[in-house]
Design brief:
Strand content of chain B: 5-15%
Helix content of chain A: over 70%
Radius of gyration of chain A: 20 Å
Largest sheet of chain A: none
Low-confidence stretches of chain A: 131-142
Number of helices of chain A: 5
Largest sheet of chain B: 3 strands, antiparallel
Low-confidence stretches of chain B: 1-5
Strand content of chain A: under 5%
Order of helices and strands of chain A: HHHHH
Order of helices and strands of chain B: HHEHHEEH
Number of helices of chain B: 5
Distance between the termini of chain B: 37 Å
Mean pLDDT of chain A: 73
Number of strands of chain B: 3
Strand order of the largest sheet of chain B: 1-3-2
Oligomer: heterodimer
Helix content of chain B: 55-70%
Largest interface: A-B, 30 and 26 residues
Shape of chain A: extended
């Protein structure tokens, strides 16, 4: 991907941030992305940068809506699952394209089951790993 | 200072390196990214999104502030540590020293046996 296309992608991702954050940091962020591209002779790690911007935008939006991290995880997981299912359904030649209402219902049920499994697994994982990820409170300086 | 140490939770690694980088002199975003990579020997390389997320939180907490260095433009803001940020960094350094001291003492005691 050439630098001008990358710049357009970065601009687009920065537009996902809330308006006040964009106003405060947007120009600065784009300048930093451009500076790193000039120095590296191309955007050094476009995927890492895109991931960082996307994650930053999601968190900034969630903070604005006061959503807990678990709710964000669930929404992202459900959307990802739905997208994957839709894309795979279109791309994989071995998967039958639904032609009747019954087949469509079967595939919809399968997709909903997969989402339901994720909805159970993710919060369970978050709860079980909370003690591992955030031991901070037990390590305060006396 | 002791009060800050008592109330403070351990800092995340990116935030710690960010504060360490600003402890020396005020820096703008890109210089800050490079400084963090340098002081962490390349181990911590923040993406732009992560860096500005951290900067935003630290500005909200008033641990850092924007600093008018003369050549600051809208797309090149300079940041510096506030006295509150310096207190938190000092407290974190003391906490890490305490942990290192404890570990060293235990290791020495084990070796002496």
């Amino acid at each position: 991907m050439n630098p001008s296309t990358m710049k357009r992608v970065f601009r687009l991702l920065i537009r996902l941030y809330p308006a006040d954050v964009r106003e405060q940091f947007g120009a600065e962020m784009l300048a930093v992305l451009e500076a790193s591209s000039t120095e590296a002779g191309g955007f050094g790690h476009p995927l890492r940068e895109c991931g960082g911007l996307l994650r930053g935008a999601i968190w900034a939006r969630c903070q604005r809506l006061r959503l807990p991290p678990v709710a964000v995880g669930l929404v992202v997981a459900a959307v990802t699952q739905w997208l994957l299912y839709t894309i795979l359904l279109r791309l994989l030649p071995s998967m039958p394209v639904p032609t009747s209402a019954i087949e469509r219902n079967n595939q919809l049920t399968l997709g909903l089951m997969a989402v339901a499994v994720l909805l159970v697994i993710i919060p369970l994982t978050v709860v079980l790993t909370r003690g591992i990820q955030r031991p901070a409170r037990k390590h305060r300086l006396r | 200072m002791r009060q800050v140490a008592n109330l403070q939770e351990p800092l995340s690694e990116p935030v710690f390196y960010l504060l360490v980088s600003l402890a020396g002199e005020p820096l703008h975003g890109y210089a800050l990214m490079k400084e963090i990579a340098e002081v962490s020997a390349g181990r911590v390389q923040l993406s732009t999104g992560t860096l500005y997320g951290a900067l935003r939180r630290l500005l909200d907490r008033e641990w850092i502030e924007r600093f008018d260095s003369g050549d600051s433009s809208r797309d090149k803001q300079v940041y510096r540590l506030t006295s509150l940020g310096r207190s938190h960094l000092t407290a974190e350094a003391a906490r890490l020293n305490e942990l290192a001291r404890l570990a060293s003492a235990r290791l020495r005691a084990k070796e002496a046996r």
